[in-house]
Design goal:
- It is a single chain.
- The protein has 456 residues and is of the alpha+beta class.
- It has three domains: 2-154, PAS domain (Beta-Lactamase, 2-Layer Sandwich); 214-299, Orthogonal Bundle (Helix Hairpins); 308-455, Histidine kinase-like ATPase, C-terminal domain (Heat Shock Protein 90), CATH 3.30.565.
- The chain has ten helices and twelve strands.
- α4 packs parallel to α5 and α7 packs parallel to α8 (348-364).
- The radius of gyration is 50 Å and the shape is rod-shaped.
- The two termini are 50 Å apart.
């Protein structure tokens, strides 16, 4: 997790550094260029102003007046005649200025003024030339000079300022990123410890599930997962305990009655009776193992559903007709109510198992002279199938658990009736594999209704 915190911090820092460097670079270029352009525009403007004055009155007095105007300023002016000989200056001129005047001689300049030198970072002066045009001919030239040292000083100050600001920004960014990465990674570290606790100690999880952000959502998901894992762990323990109990009981009967059969003085009648009991227990044990294997295949997603479109009423009518004799033995009326032809897309073999299980339960837990009904309702987007009985019903406290494997409402009565406690679990799994749902409503002493909902 420290690696994640370090990588996250470094990533944030690199992104912020790149953004700051780009921002400072463009600001630096913009400010420096703006200042230099202002200086050169100002120099050109002053040169053209002096040129305009001299074009109106090109006399020694005017030349002296122009030179005097620049004597107290930061810029310098030199006025030459048409041969580039100096005829007026605001300051003492030097060799650098003379070189720039010589450069100006060979330039293609315009009446609006031209930059002679603009390399502020290497040369001593910025320089411009503005020709004095009288009656269509150039009678002289105005050279303006600005010392580049103040510009370089300004650029150095800007650079230093940006370095200081950049350094402060980097330090602040590092501190902010450190706390931000800790703020993000600390909950992740706690979640990591929580997942360890889940594997070691069950559901001993303590997380901040009240955060209103993605980390809060993740914490809530982990907490929910821990609860589900604990529930699954308890279910597994109970299931294994129930399986061992359910297998132990018939095996104990088998061994006990097999030992009795080995007694030499056993009568033929008793021998047949005990052999019949052994056969019943073996049949029940075989049925339970078969259903356990079926549920195991469902858990491993090895249970295949092969759907086909079939007429539901004909399908149910066939099942009801085959089971009617078993119901008649207990004097129970079995009726099918299916008004018209309805076609559904189901696996007939697997769905037959669902209906058989529900009807078998209805028969086992219904008293004589009662009725069991299979009622089909056509819904807007699908079909519902009700299996209603008038049996003893299921206590309300047991309803949420009847779908669990090996759960029995009345264990002693269920064993007497030959149930394995797996039938409803199989029903639920098969219906859900069809994309449907199964529900139950029951009133103690009045009966139970199982409702299967499937889409077309």
């Amino acid at each position: 997790m420290k690696k994640i915190s370090f990588k996250l911090g470094i990533s944030f820092l690199l992104v912020i550094l790149i953004l700051e460097m780009l921002l400072f670079f463009f600001l630096y270029i913009f400010i420096a260029r703006e200042r230099i352009e202002n200086e050169t525009d100002n120099l050109l403007g002053r040169g053209m102003n002096h040129r305009d004055v001299l074009e109106k009155n090109f006399t020694p007095n005017t030349i002296e007046h122009v030179a005097l105007m620049e004597a107290e300023g930061d810029t310098k002016v030199i006025i030459t005649d048409d041969q580039f000989d100096i005829i007026g200056a605001s300051h003492d001129f030097n060799e650098n200025m003379e070189i720039l005047i010589d450069i100006g001689k060979s330039m293609d300049f315009t009446h609006h003024g031209t930059l002679v030198e603009e390399r502020w970072n290497t040369e001593r002066y910025l320089a411009t030339i503005s020709p004095i045009e009288i009656d269509g001919t150039y009678e002289g030239y105005v050279f303006m000079f600005a010392d580049t040292n103040p510009i370089r000083t300004m650029i150095r100050n800007i650079t230093l300022l940006f370095l200081v600001i950049g350094g402060i920004a980097i330090i602040i960014s590092i501190i902010a990123i450190f706390f931000l990465s800790q703020f993000i990674t600390q909950p992740l570290i706690k979640m990591k410890e929580a997942t360890k606790n889940i594997t070691r100690q069950g559901n001993a999880v303590t997380l901040d599930i009240h955060r209103d952000d993605e980390l809060g959502e993740l914490a809530r998901e982990i907490y929910t997962l821990s609860e589900e894992l604990e529930h699954l762990k308890n279910e597994r323990t109970e299931f294994l305990s129930s399986v061992s109990h359910e297998l132990r009981t018939p095996l104990t009967y088998l061994k006990g009655y097999a030992d009795i059969l080995n007694r030499p003085n056993l009568s033929v009648e008793d021998r047949e009776k005990f052999a019949s009991i052994i056969q019943e227990e073996a049949t029940q044990l075989t049925e339970m193992v078969k259903e356990l294997f079926l549920l195991a295949k469902m858990d491993k997603n090895q249970f295949s559903i092969s759907k086909e479109e079939i007429p539901l009423c004909d399908f149910l009518k066939e099942i009801v007709s085959k089971l009617t004799p078993a119901f008649m033995e207990k004097n129970i009326s079995l009726q099918l109510i299916c008004a018209k032809d309805i076609y559904v897309n189901i696996d007939p073999i697997r769905f037959r198992q669902v209906i058989n299980n529900l009807l078998d339960n209805a028969r086992k837990y219904s008293s004589e002279s009662t009725s069991v009904e299979v009622v089909v309702h056509e819904q807007k987007y699908g079909v519902s199938i009700d299996v209603r009985d008038q049996g003893e019903g299921i206590p309300e406290k047991d309803l949420p658990y009847i779908w669990e494997r090996l759960y029995r409402v009345d264990k002693s009565r269920s064993r007497a009736l030959g149930g394995t406690g797996l039938g409803l679990a199989i029903v639920k799994e098969i219906v859900e594999l069809h994309g449907g749902t199964v529900e139950v409503k029951s009133v103690l002493g009045e009966g139970t209704t199982f409702t299967i909902n499937i889409s077309r």
